[in-house]
């Protein structure tokens, strides 16, 4: 397989998965605001914090308010992770490998692109914003559905899966971080079981969580589920296992497998009951760094 | 009630096509004789078309269009405003050629291509044809397509232009003539194959009337030709197709052919030359490449020898080729024989190299560098077509009778600035074939591009790509300039 094809497949998957996760993050925040309409301490800054793009943001905007943050995350061309840019990059990456992928996948991406690019988020009515985000999420899943159902298992499939789950692991970590920062900055409320559960909903994790933990739920239980559950595909641990599976199916992956298994072990050893918000944040930051090393290694070995 | 129905039926018949209303012109029509009868071997399809109502015709047209759209058969057109992707234009009325007639064309094309390949090799080696005075040496040696680094090189099977496409036209008498030979990177073969694929889906009932010769073996034959071009002894040489990238107007074809042959479609950045060996970059590391079917022009192949700013080529590629570590198909330097002035010497080449009489006639060509030819061409301006010798795609062609009297001197002046760059040919009235336009069927001019493969043996596609000028009276068939296409049937009749 050509290195260039592998690279395009990998980045195609990363950008589409990123689209989904950013949409989910925005969703989390919009829902939180609906739950606490009078709480002005709730703000939009954590979203920008977790994506590590504050400098870029402050270059253009003064206030971290809903309008500015949404504009920045949706359509700002200087923000490389804006939904617009993610989809432009997806289109760019699929262009030369289109013929290696099922036609239905290309159609799904076109639909998603038309749904998002060129629309101004500020022009979308408040009532329709959540729906708009839900649609983005369901369209990205339509794309991966087309891949899962129609693409033969081989190197193409593995590079898509690899890109998707590396991106996902990174983004779950950021989303957890985002939730906890919101929580700690918001002193007036203590999160109740219901509030924790609603967060799980935005990660499509509520049903899965309920199967392993019934009754009252607290921070530790929820975060440990998102970090360490071994069967839910939107948990960090499970995503790492899937990355391991991909690597096993690829050539020259010995070193990568070693790096990945170290991350898996760190995850297993983490003691969430002992972590306060700062420790948790550091743990997550460390996880993101490890992942970025894996990503660099993938690039140097295969592309 | 009955009466109304009857009238309705009659009305419908009125709407039907009748050949008696078909607009014939001076040109040879391949379906209809000057006496407005359907030619013998076309009776079945002629009658069939006549039985169709306007509605039927429109249905067939939209079925064709939607099949092409859903198959994603596209091509890219460039203009001053940028480029756009367009659906491939296919007319559903086939162009039909009798097998007996075709066999002779096929023989003629094989003969021609063999002679052209021998000529190219001669030019880069002993230059006998030039030295013996059959042609002025300067025509070749000062051509921008003459590449010094090819001198002294011998290639397997004497194949330089492994893949070529000759443009044929039918004259007023209905005989095939060669209009030009495309020996650099001719395109269009994928559309020939796709046209057939679409026609079988849209018009299956027609195929049952005729024994239409199959054409789908082309990708296999092409693959064999590429294998035979290899310098390496291996039975399974590593072959890639080198494309300039997605913005090339023929990218669709590049991707199609690579897929059909199961070879990698690579861009310049996917290849690297180390110690004069070409490798492709794969996820498992570097892998040696034996044959490159390139769809990149000579000048852009290697920044070391051609255009130094080329980003679509591969640094060091030519040196690797000269060391016979990789085969380049078509070989660099083929362009010397793809020139409208050199074209006029092909009959001489056939006699010289093969000691045979040319089977397919050339169009009379006036070399405007020669004063006598030039004077004749200028005196007969309105009966002439003026062509730049080294352009392709129909660009730069001037049809004498379309030029206003006042503007003729401008054209002449322009030619006089550099007469060796131009030739003139008498305006041939291209043959026509019924073609669907809007609501009915009209005669439209067409040409034919068969593709010829030169390996151990020479192979000619059965038929080729028929291109049709869609505007009334126009002879511009190029798809980039609004031309359409037809499926070409070679039939047993």
Strand content of chain B: 15-25%
Mean pLDDT of chain A: 89
The best one-word shape of chain B is globular
Q: How many helices of chain A in DSSP terms?
A: 14
Number of strands of chain B: 22
Described by strand count, sense and barrel closure, the largest sheet of chain B is: 5 strands, mixed
Strand arrangement, largest sheet of chain B?
A: 3-22-21-18-17
Radius of gyration of chain A: 19 Å
- Could you give a short account of the major beta sheet of chain A? none
Low-confidence stretches of chain B: 1-14
Largest interface: A-B, 16 and 17 residues
The count of helical stretches of chain B stands at: 14
Instruction: Show unreliable segments of chain A.
Output: none
Structure description:
- The complex is a heterodimer of chains A (303) and B (493).
- Chain A is mainly α.
- Helices cover 73% and strands 0% of the residues of chain A.
- Chain A is built from 14 helices and no strands.
- In chain A, helix 1 runs parallel beside helix 8 (155-185) and helix 2 packs across helix 8.
- The radius of gyration of chain A is 19 Å and the shape is globular.
- The N and C termini of chain A lie close together (11 Å).
- With 493 residues, chain B is an alpha+beta fold.
- Chain B has 14 helices and 22 strands.
- Chain B has helices spanning 2-15, 43-50, 54-71, 99-124, 128-131, 137-141, 189-202, 204-207, 218-229, 251-261, 317-322, 346-354, 371-379, 408-417, and strands spanning 74-79, 82-87, 90-98, 163-170, 176-182, 239-242, 264-266, 271-274, 277-282, 285-288, 291-294, 327-329, 366-367, 384-388, 398-399, 422-426, 432-437, 440-449, 451-454, 458-460, 465-469, 483-491.
- In chain B, strands 3-22-21-18-17 form a 5-stranded mixed sheet.
- In chain B, a hairpin with a 5-residue loop joins strand 4 (163-170) and strand 5 (176-182).
- In chain B, helix 3 crosses helix 7.
- Chain B is globular, with a radius of gyration of 24 Å.
- Residues 1-14 of chain B have low confidence and may be disordered.
- Chain A binds chain B through residues 1-4, 6, 95-96, 99, 103, 155, 250-252, 301-303, and chain B through 72, 245-246, 255, 259, 264-267, 269-270, 280-285.
């Amino acid at each position: 397989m050509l290195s260039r094809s592998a690279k395009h497949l990998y980045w195609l998957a990363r950008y589409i998965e990123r689209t989904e996760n950013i949409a989910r993050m925005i969703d989390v925040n919009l829902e939180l605001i609906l739950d606490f309409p009078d709480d002005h301490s709730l703000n939009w800054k954590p979203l920008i914090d977790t994506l590590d793009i504050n400098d870029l943001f402050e270059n253009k905007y003064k206030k971290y308010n809903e309008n500015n943050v949404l504009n920045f995350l949706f359509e700002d061309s200087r923000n490389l992770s804006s939904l617009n840019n993610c989809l432009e990059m997806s289109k760019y990456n699929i262009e030369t490998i289109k013929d290696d992928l099922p036609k239905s996948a290309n159609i799904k991406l076109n639909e998603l692109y038309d749904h998002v690019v060129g629309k101004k988020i500020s022009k979308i009515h408040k009532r329709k914003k959540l729906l708009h985000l839900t649609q983005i999420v369901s369209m990205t899943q339509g794309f991966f559905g087309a891949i899962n159902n129609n693409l033969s298992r081989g190197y193409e499939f593995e590079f898509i899966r690899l890109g998707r789950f590396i991106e996902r692991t990174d983004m779950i970590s950021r989303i957890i971080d985002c939730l906890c920062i919101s929580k700690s900055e918001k002193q007036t409320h203590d999160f109740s079981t219901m509030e924790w559960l609603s967060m799980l909903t935005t990660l499509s994790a509520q049903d899965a969580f309920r199967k392993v933990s019934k009754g009252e739920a607290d921070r530790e239980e929820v975060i440990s589920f998102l970090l360490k559950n071994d069967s839910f595909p939107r948990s960090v641990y499970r995503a790492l296992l899937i990355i391991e599976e991909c690597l096993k199916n690829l050539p020259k992956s010995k070193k990568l497998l070693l790096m990945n298994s170290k991350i898996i072990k760190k995850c297993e050893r983490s003691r969430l009951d002992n972590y306060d918000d700062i420790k948790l944040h550091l743990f997550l930051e460390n996880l993101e760094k490890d992942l970025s090393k894996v990503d660099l290694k993938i690039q140097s070995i295969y592309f | 009630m009955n009466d109304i129905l009857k009238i309705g039926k009659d009305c419908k018949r009125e709407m039907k096509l009748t050949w008696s209303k078909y607009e014939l012109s001076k040109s040879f029509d391949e379906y209809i004789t000057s006496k407005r009868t359907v030619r013998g071997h076309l009776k079945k399809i002629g009658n069939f078309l006549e039985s169709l109502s306007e509605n039927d015709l429109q249905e067939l047209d939209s079925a064709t269009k939607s099949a092409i759209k859903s198959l994603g058969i596209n091509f890219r057109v460039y203009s001053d405003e940028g480029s756009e992707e367009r659906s491939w234009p296919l007319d559903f009325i086939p162009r039909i050629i009798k097998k007996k007639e075709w066999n002779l064309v096929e023989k003629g094309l094989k003969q021609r291509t063999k002679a052209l390949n021998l000529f190219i090799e001669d030019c880069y080696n002993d230059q006998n044809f030039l030295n013996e005075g059959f042609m002025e040496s300067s025509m070749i040696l000062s051509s921008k397509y003459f590449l010094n680094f090819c001198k002294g090189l011998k290639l397997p099977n004497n194949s330089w232009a492994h893949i070529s496409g000759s443009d044929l036209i039918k004259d007023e008498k209905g005989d095939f003539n060669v209009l030009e030979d495309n020996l650099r990177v001719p395109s269009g073969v994928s559309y020939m194959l796709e046209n057939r694929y679409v026609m079988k889906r849209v018009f299956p009932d027609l195929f049952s009337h005729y024994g239409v010769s199959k054409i789908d073996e082309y990708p296999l034959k092409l693959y064999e030709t590429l294998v035979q071009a290899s310098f390496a002894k291996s039975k399974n040489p590593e072959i890639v197709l080198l494309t300039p990238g997605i913005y090339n107007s023929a990218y669709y074809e590049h991707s199609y052919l690579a897929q059909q042959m199961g070879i990698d479609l690579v861009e310049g950045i996917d290849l690297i030359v180390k110690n004069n060996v070409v490798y492709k970059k794969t996820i498992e590391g570097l892998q040696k490449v034996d044959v490159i079917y390139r769809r990149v022009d000579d000048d852009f192949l290697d920044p070391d020898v051609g255009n130094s700013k080329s980003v679509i080529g591969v640094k060091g590629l030519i040196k690797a080729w000269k060391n016979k570590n990789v085969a380049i198909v078509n070989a660099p330097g083929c362009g010397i024989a793809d020139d409208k002035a050199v074209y006029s010497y092909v009959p001489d080449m056939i006699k010289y190299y093969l000691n045979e009489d040319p089977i397919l006639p050339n169009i009379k060509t006036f070399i405007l560098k020669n004063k006598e030819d030039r004077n004749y061409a200028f005196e007969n301006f309105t009966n002439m077509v003026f062509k730049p010798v080294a352009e392709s795609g129909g660009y730069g062609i001037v049809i004498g009778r379309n030029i206003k009297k006042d503007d003729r001197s401008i054209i002449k002046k322009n030619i006089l600035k550099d007469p060796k760059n131009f030739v003139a040919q008498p305006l041939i009235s291209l043959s026509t074939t019924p073609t669907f336009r809007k609501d009915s069927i009209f005669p439209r001019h067409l040409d034919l591009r068969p593709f010829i493969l030169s390996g151990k043996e020479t192979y000619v596609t059965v038929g080729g790509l028929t291109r049709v000028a869609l505007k009334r009276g126009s002879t511009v068939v190029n798809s980039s300039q609004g031309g359409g296409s037809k499926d070409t049937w070679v039939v047993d009749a």
